[in-house]
Specification:
- There is one protein chain.
- By secondary structure, the chain is mainly alpha-helical.
- Helix content is 71%, strand content 10%.
- It starts with a helix and ends in a 12-residue tail after the last helix.
- The relative contact order is 0.03.
Length: 174
C-alpha cells in the first residue's frame, strides 16, 4: 500500500511520474528531460519572484532614504514654495477647530429646521401625548368617582385635598 500511495502522490502532486491507461494496464513513465524542464521552469519562476522582490526592496529603501532626508524638518520646500512645519501645524489646528464649530452650528440649525417629515413626526408625538393625557384625566375622574361612591366623600373635598382642578381644560385638536 505504501508504494501505491507514494506513486500516486508523485503522479498527482509532483508531476514527476506520468501515467496512461493502456487496456487494463497502467503504464508509468518518467523522462529525464521532462523532470529537468519542470525544475528549470520552477527555477525561472523563483528567479523572477526574487527579482521582483529585490526591486520592491530597492524602491522601499529609496523612499525610506527620501523620507529620512526630508522628514520632520522645521522648514522644507515643495516645488518652488517653502513651508514651515510649525506654521502648517497651527493652521491645521485652527482649521480643525473651525470645522468643529461649524459642524456644531450645522447640527443646531438642522435640529431647528422644520421640514415636512419633522412636522409630521412632531404631530404624531403630540397626538400620542394628548392621548396619554386624556387617559390620565379619565383615570383621575374615575378615581374621584370611586372614592365618592366607596367612602361617601364629596368630589369637591377630594379635589381640594389632592389639588385636582374642578374641571380640566379642553384640549383643541392640533
Amino acid at each position: 500500500m505504501i508504494v501505491k500511495e507514494l506513486v500516486q502522490q508523485m503522479i498527482d502532486e509532483d508531476g514527476v511520474i506520468s501515467v496512461e491507461k493502456c487496456g487494463n494496464i497502467n503504464i508509468y513513465w518518467c523522462f529525464k528531460n521532462q523532470t529537468l524542464q519542470t525544475l528549470y521552469d520552477s527555477s525561472e519562476k523563483l528567479k523572477k519572484q526574487i527579482q521582483e522582490t529585490e526591486s520592491d526592496i530597492a524602491i522601499s529603501k529609496r523612499e525610506l532614504e527620501k523620507t529620512l532626508e526630508t522628514g520632520r524638518r522645521k522648514k522644507f520646500t515643495v516645488g518652488q514654495k517653502s513651508y514651515s512645519r510649525d506654521v502648517l501645524i497651527e493652521k491645521r489646528k485652527k482649521v480643525q477647530e473651525e470645522i468643529k464649530k461649524k459642524s456644531t452650528s450645522l447640527q443646531k440649525i438642522e435640529s431647528i429646521r422644520w421640514d415636512g417629515a419633522k412636522i409630521q413626526e412632531n404631530k404624531q408625538r403630540v397626538h400620542l401625548k394628548k392621548g396619554q393625557l386624556e387617559k390620565i384625566t379619565d383615570n383621575i375622574e374615575i378615581l374621584v368617582d370611586y372614592l365618592y361612591k366607596k367612602f361617601f366623600l364629596q368630589p369637591e373635598q377630594i379635589r381640594k385635598e389632592f389639588g385636582i382642578p374642578e374641571e380640566f381644560e379642553e384640549l383643541t385638536d392640533i
